[in-house]
Amino acid sequence: MGHNLERASEIAHAMVCQLGMSKKLGPLAYGKRQQLAYLGVEGTEERNFSEETARIIDAEVKILVVEGQQRAEEILKLHRSVLDVIAQRLQEKEVVSGEEIKQIIRDRTKQL
What we know:
The chain is mostly helical.
C-alpha cells in the first residue's frame, strides 16, 4: 500500500505543479524538472517558488490524495456486494474469466 500512496502523491504533485490543476494556485506550472531523457530517469526539481507557495502546493497535493482515497472507498462500498460475489467465486475456482466477472456484475446490478 505504501507504494500506491507514494505513486498517488507523485501524480497529485504533477497535477498541481505541472498541469495547473489546483483551485488555489490556478493554471500555472511550479518548479522545473530536469529530466535525463536518454536514461528515462527524472532528475531534480528546480524550485522557483516561495516557501508559502510550497506550503500551498503540499496542502493541495494532500487534498487531492485524500479526496481520491475517499472516492475509492465510496466506490468500493457502493459495489461491495459485487466484490463479495467475485471474491467467493475466486475462492471456489481460483481463476475467473473476464466474461464471468461481467456476468456477475450484470446479475448483481439487476438485483439492486
